[in-house]
Amino acid sequence: MKDKILTHIGLGRFFALPCAACSVLLGVALGGHWSWVSAMVTLAAVFEMAYSHSFNTLLDWAWTGFDKGTEEERSKPKVYTHGQQAIATGTMSVRGVLINGLIYLAISAVFIAVVVWQTGWWVLLFWVLGTLVTFWYSIAKKFWMPELALGIGFATIGTMMGMATQPNPDYLLAGLASIPFFVMFSVMCESLDQWADASANWPRGGRSLGMLVWKMGGSIVTYAVWWIAIAYIAQLFLVQAGILKPLTALSLVATVPLAFAIAMIEKLPDKAIIIGLGGVFIFHILIVVGQVMG
Q1: What's the pTM?
Q2: Nearest-CA neighbor of 265 among 225, 232, 229, 215?
Q3: pLDDT exceeds 80 at position 69
């Protein structure tokens, strides 16, 4: 029973919770009006993320087929997530994963209903868009744009959901402010994830920036460093434009674990990935903290 419960929880891949939560909280911080509703919309986003991850397991098996076949043929297991191949390994049935995802979505819907009751219908629009991005992301792995789909879902829509709870929401401001999150997690991290799956997924029609680096024999380390730099450059421009507060520069602390991860990636890849994810989470958290304090 314990293993079954842990498997159901694992399908939500809550390792990404800091990124999902921080995107929403950034939208709230940009507006500056905090209340208990801020917690409700954040919880709605977290459980919506869990639904998306659970359905990704389902869709990669039943729709795109990336998780079908022998262990060598399907997407690689990841050290930072559990439940990715629950169907492929026989741990769970298709029906079980479907029910799991729908339960996560239902929990999210309860929280978003409370937020709608308090703030209005705009937040529901972004929530619905977030649920639909799940399907776009799965098929986008065959059309060169999983990074774009993930970024729209995790960063852009998440920040706009938080902004939608504000008395005078500015959605353009939210979209621009989300760019560093978009680049750091949804482009840089997703590319690393796709690169790891490239040997199995490229022959099956998988196409993405990370897979292209693998196909061309390029250095994934150099590629990652460039995107980390771009995320910080984007943040600098947003600070100069007055969109992000100067104290969001606290996020520079994240360069320490990111540098360690880059240095370790070839010799100790599993540890490097965990440390690197820690750096990405610190980046997200300190931008939100800096925006609140700034």
Answers
A1: 0.95
A2: 225
A3: no
